Amino acid sequence: MPHDSTSAAAVKPAPQAKDEASAAEARALVDRAYQAFLEYQNFSQEQVDRIIDAVAAAGAANAEKLARLAVEETGYGVVEDKVKKNLFAAQRVHEAVRPLKTVGVVREDAGITEIAVPVGVVVAILPSTNPTSTAIYKSLIALKGRNAIVLSPHPSALRCSCEGAAIMREAAVKAGAPADVICCLGAPTLAGTQELMKHRRTSVILATGGMGMVRAAYSSGKPAFGVGPGNVPAYIDRSADVQKAVADVVTGKTFDNGTICPSEQAIVAEEALREPILKELAKHGAHLLSRAEIDQLGKLMVNTETHTICPKFVGKSALKVAELARLNVAPTTRVLVALLDKVGR
């Protein structure tokens, strides 16, 4: 059969068509979530708590499944660490919000009465680095406040995020919630996400992701809470327990291959602590990069125009990063360390 060079193009939708379909889906989901909210806002505290109990239990029961899906789909992080993050979101967040009263009068003091009122539809932007744990905790806090939620997954984490949403949605519905109290955008594009954020029925945005997405949320004209990529420096003072401080920094940096926002990215210390810190880093599997290795890694890893990290290095182990940069390191290496002589942008 002769090769038809146009067949693939005919099947694959054009970018404009994908954007239009995504935006249309976004509008439909917010409308459906709003209808669910109109019913859910009248639920009692007992009904609300029964629903978040069920959602939290479902998230915890599927913590490992969702962690494996996330690593398989994105290539980021470590399954065991993502399990811990999913469990934290499902269990610890649930423990924190479960006792809160979110229906009716919540406090009376000095003649002032506080009454809990839901905001409506919450739009939640999810990152590729923490796609399932973020979906779990944002859904829990939205539902606890008697709000409906629409999740917007990162395109590279679509399957695992939507699977998490489906698991929580099923649990919520079985516990008595309206069917569309949790929705997930199935064809996410930038246009679709922007449509979610600017929709007239959207009440608040919870944005986790790159700075571009966070800025877009803050510029949407809606109330927004944003968390960007993080770039955490750890200051070790001369009064510190250097052994513990370095151990904690390495643990934080290597957890889930550094994909959480609070992962330590730099150590700042006084000159007197240079050698003790380097000695402790070596004990914890650090490879101290030479100047040539710093230059070699930097050229491959960092886009100097945008000051962003090349995606293929994100969420990878130190050994994988070294392999990608063609660096020769010991097989026990846990972190790569560069001594810097100035503060960069």
Number of strands: 13
Question: How many discrete structural domains?
Answer: 2
Structural shape: globular
- Our measurement of the CA-to-CA distance between the termini, rounded to an integer number of angstroms, reads 57 Å
- What structural class do you assign from the helix and strand content? alpha/beta
**CATH-level-2 architecture of the largest domain:** 3-Layer(aba) Sandwich
CATH topology of the largest domain: Aldehyde Dehydrogenase, Chain A, domain 1
The radius of gyration over CA amounts to: 23 Å
With strands numbered from the N-terminus, the spatial order across the biggest sheet is 5-4-3-6-7
Residue share in β-strands: 15-25%
- The H/E string reads HHHHHEEEHEHEHEHEEHEHEHEEHE
Which class of the largest domain in CATH terms?
Alpha Beta
Helix-residue proportion: 40-55%
Number of helices: 13
- Characterize the main sheet: 5 strands, parallel
Corresponding CATH superfamily of the largest domain: Aldehyde Dehydrogenase, Chain A, domain 1
Mean pLDDT: 93
Poorly predicted regions: 1-9
